[in-house]
Specification:
Blueprint: H1 2-8, E1 18-28, E2 31-41, E3 44-48, E4 58-64, E5 69-82, E6 85-93, H2 97-122
Antiparallel strand pairs: 1-2, 1-4, 2-3, 3-6, 4-5, 5-6
């Protein structure tokens, strides 16, 4: 229970978790498992899936960004059920600098856009 509480505590995250859906293709043992990420931050995402996976396993994902597909290797850091559903919280493992730059640029643009939307909503616009 303490681990679950720690993982859900936004203050413990290095970057803010943003709600956003991305289509994911998980390449696993010769199969392509289509699933969705339902939120993300600069370091990873939560992928909704019923597929069993052990914590700390590495996953090979194709992540569909609005302008490109990124091939990422990630590590399963949390496996279980959250308010966002059943799935796996993954952390990006950086092996490809170009993919890393694209992921971080996408996150930063999404963060800026959602911050603008929050400011507009707070101002009643």
């Amino acid at each position: 229970m303490a681990a679950r509480r720690l993982l859900s505590d936004a203050r413990m995250r290095r970057t803010e978790r943003l709600p956003f859906e991305l289509y994911i293709t998980w390449h696993r043992e010769g199969r392509e498992i289509v699933c969705r990420a339902v939120d993300l931050n600069a370091h990873g995402m939560f992928v909704r899936t019923d597929e069993p996976i052990a914590p700390d396993s590495e996953l090979q994902l194709a992540v569909q960004l609005p302008d490109r597909v990124l091939e990422l290797i990630v590590a399963a850091r949390f496996v279980g059920t959250t308010a966002r559903g059943r799935g796996v919280g993954v952390e990006r493992l950086v092996f490809d600098e170009l993919a890393d730059r694209h992921w971080l640029a996408f996150y930063e643009a999404l963060y800026a856009e959602q911050a603008r939307q929050r400011r507009s909503a707070a101002m009643g616009a």
